[in-house]
Specification:
The chain is an all-alpha fold and 591 residues long. 71% of the residues lie in helices and 1% in strands. It is globular and about 65 Å long.
Amino acid sequence: MGTLGLAAVALTPILVVAVFLVGLRWPASRAMPLSWLAAVVLAWGVWGVTGTRIAAASINGLWVAATLLYIIFGALLLLHTLRESGALAVIRQGFIGITPDRRIQVLLIAWLFGAFIEGSAGFGTPAAVCVPLLVGLGFPPLSAVVAGMLIQSTSVSFGAAGTPILIGVSTGLSGSEAVMAYAESLGYSDWTAFLHFIGIRIGILHAVAGTLVPLIVVATMTRFFGERRSFTEGLRVWRFALFAALAMTVPYLILAVVLGPEFPSLLGGLIGLGIVVTGARRGLFMPPPEDHFEFPPRNAWEADWTADRETTMADGVPSRPISPVAAWMPYAVVGLLLVITRLPALPLRSWLSGIVVGWPDILGSGISASAAPFFLPGTTFVVASLFAVVFHRMRGAQFGSALSHSLSSTGLASVALVFTVPMVQVFLNTGNGTAGFASMPIALAEGAAQIAGSAWPFFSTFIGGLGAFVAGSNTVSNMMFSLFQFGVGERLGVDPGWVVALQAVGGAAGNMICVHNVVAASAVVGLIGREGAVIRRTLVPFVYYALLPGALGYSILWSATRGLINAGTVVVVAIFVGAAIWIARHQRPNR
């Protein structure tokens, strides 16, 4: 079978997701079993993977799904505990004290606080923290999930203290003589210094693309969830959105250059949050009071905006008055624990990650399943919840109610995840079949490379995004495709380091549309079965986030031979000029 034919066949499980989940609007609990079945049939019938290995990959998928469900449970437990204690009502009032404008609130919580959480923990944790917090503030659940997915882009490559680069890119490239020769030709005999070098290029691409993300978030929110269904209300706060973007991306890029991959999202988000909150309190770039944005009354919300069965309840009655500092303290505990357990320089990381439970060599297949339960964000959320019980002096019945609601909602999420993640694992583990074909992801990438030719930089980010869409992880996407992307760069005769950087940025963008991330984010607010509705609203922003860095990469890679004015430069300029025109056309006052 030829390269293009094999790529077309490998695309089948993804097409099933696109048709049934996004196109026909089936819930993930119905669409993903079909995708898993398609992957199984192709793995066995075309790739020649043994039934034992397919079963082992599926079991590993169930193991990974269990870890995701644990994270979901922990996030839900924290949400319901704070609601029962009355702390969530205090937090809500605090944000209203800064501004009642939902556009500003979503940037403070999702874009800035979410970047800090991504830098601390990664792996979908920002959605588990920020989405329920937004819902607790009165956002429609669907709008909160969409916002939580859109911001999983700029901060992702440096998430979990740089894991997508320090583990993903490093593992993907290590052992290659060509890569080592390239690094040494640039003067990087030290591997860590070489990864720092790659990280700077990744940071540059993200800083450019991230400039418009806050604007996209608020415009998407007002277009799909505003009473007027208009981009105008979102674009009217373009000054504040750009302020919020630069307050994070400027220190983020400086940190990438000065300190390395561990700190851009972690400290960039925190620095940006401090700058923007201070600016908002002083009225900097803030909309006037008469132009504040609010969602329609709850009774006017569309049916798919919220859950069929509510997972939240009325605010609890606190056992004692709770100050704003006390209300936020459990989230401070979350941030502190995530930082001290993720930084490589601190011993807790090696201690907690070293306590592993798993199933090595499942069914003799060579595939192993493992998890470090005390290192998972779910444990952090549970600890923060128990802290809240003591610190807020909650009654046992209050915590019991929070626990009951959390377990019930986690159960609803399990139906979709028990097929979504096994499909991913079968898809990834198709490289050792009797047919001798490369695994499905590599077959897809090779087909795209054959079609693209010298236009590969435009495609490279989309391949990274495809890897994250399937695997649910920028880190795994980088492991799969970094060496392949490096090799394509070499064959084209361009700087392969930039191509690897494009891979990492595309892998970050893929988190916006990743099915099991959407399932997990939706589950924490009880929005089961609306995964397609989320992806339909995040697909265009994903295309933007893959296209802009790809065009910028094309311009950088080919400017020496094709001149500064080339196809990449034209696309980059067109995107920013188009954004400026879009903003200008939507500055009309309300009618």
